[in-house]
Design a protein that fits this description.
370 residues; Rossmann fold; binds adenosine-5'-diphosphate; alpha/beta; 7-stranded mixed beta sheet
Length: 370
């Protein structure tokens, strides 16, 4: 299901990005604006698909959250950066108050899922807020439990609808209103918090505003030492082989529109050639013969899978050290583990972001970074 729903989005989002970035035949300003709408609509649809799939996986008990110590202030900063543009567009003042004084607290959480919960509450505070209003995120720590609050002074939730809002597809009276939504976000939020051993709750006064919170267990009291790796600059001219030859990338992929997309991406890199092969059996032959610098492997292939192909490449000494980037439509946590264990150099989820792909290729093709 995931594959069928996400694959057409690859073409939509991929080619829209390429049109936007095309330096040889740049789009006019009105065309850029239109492509912007295609991207915006596509991204919205992708989020919806992801939400529906996410919920169905959680409900089927197939989501495993792995908790680790997570710095709360860092998560708040990430949430602030994500929400700020939404708030500005809606004319709402967003304020995020990190924990001040003492060592920055850590909670036991799955970082991505914790962030997802706060972004969900925050985007609701903005969506159901009023222009000129406020959205506030703050933190309270007591007895080894930490609560993050998201408050707004927006439209509030009718009292008679309040007992159902954490149930899937419940829109608490907004179903006929102008504000876009599916009623899935809060139900995912509640289940995720519970999977992390936490809880969620809220109070709301119609016409005055709402306050949602998520509570998680505090981890010790050590400061967070997590450091963000900085990304190398994109499109750098550092891609030059000492012998002056060009680089070769072999792309194993059966879908023609994905291949055309990849050609467009590789076009942005100087002196890199792409050979596309439509199945793993042939791919292996081509790779053994031409010894490319990098292989990009679709996982879901007809016949032999990308996993099996990568395993075989590792069995031969002459292909063992060629880095393989996995491209997969499945965004599930379980799949991620499997990819990690299968020894891929990188794994990217389709629809691939052009910037992410370029970053991966550049760092694998530049010997000092490889
Ligand atoms: P969606 O926003 O996609 O409809 P959610 O599951 O996030 O779905 O929220 C469910 C419903 O709860 C919303 O449709 C809305 O009626 C109500 N709601 C959620 N957050 C707020 C808020 N901050 N202020 C007012 N209503 C809210």
């Amino acid at each position: 299901m995931s594959h069928e729903l996400r694959t057409p989005m690859n073409a939509i989002l991929g080619f829209a990005q390429l049109l936007q970035r095309d330096k040889r035949a740049p789009l006019s300003a009105p065309q850029l604006e239109r492509v912007g709408y295609v991207l915006q609509g596509g991204e919205h649809l992708l989020r919806l698909i992801d939400d529906i799939l996410d919920l169905s996986r959680i409900e089927a008990g197939r989501v495993v959250v792995s908790t680790e110590p997570v710095g709360v202030n860092e998560v708040l900063e990430e949430v602030r950066q994500t929400l700020e543009p939404l708030a500005t567009r809606a004319g709402i003042t967003l304020s995020v108050k990190p924990v001040a004084g003492g060592p920055p607290p850590e909670v036991l959480a799955d970082r991505t899922r914790f962030t997802q919960i706060l972004i969900n509450f925050g985007s609701n505070a903005i969506k159901y807020g009023r222009p000129g209003g406020q959205a506030q995120i703050s933190v309270d720590v007591a007895d080894n439990r930490l609560r993050c609050f998201v408050r707004d002074d927006g439209i509030g939730i009718p009292f008679e609808k309040q007992d159902k809002i954490f149930q899937p597809f419940q829109r608490a009276g907004q179903e006929a209103g102008p504000i876009e939504g599916t009623g899935i976000g809060l139900s995912i939020t509640k289940r995720l918090a519970e999977l992390m051993g936490g809880a969620v709750g809220f109070r709301s006064t119609p016409g005055k505003g709402s306050e949602f919170w998520v509570e998680l267990a505090v981890h010790g009291n050590s400061a967070s030492a997590r450091e963000e790796a900085s990304l190398p600059a994109l499109g750098s001219a550092s891609l030059a082989r000492e012998d002056g030859d060009s680089f070769l990338i072999v792309y194993v992929e059966d879908n023609p529109s994905n291949i055309a997309f990849m050609r467009g991406v590789i076009d942005e890199l100087p002196r890199v050639e792409l050979m596309a092969v439509s199945n793993a059996e042939q791919g292996i032959e081509v790779i053994r013969k031409h010894r490319p610098q990098v292989v990009i492997m679709d996982i879901n292939l007809p016949g032999m899978s990308g996993y099996e192909a990568a395993r075989r490449l590792r069995d031969w000494p002459e292909t063992r050290d060629i880095p393989v980037i996995a491209l997969t439509a499945a965004a599930m946590a379980g799949e991620r583990k499997r990819l990690e264990q299968a020894g891929f150099a990188r794994y990217l989820t389709k629809p691939a972001k052009v910037a992410e792909l370029l970053e991966a290729l550049e760092s694998l093709l530049t010997p000092s970074k490889a």
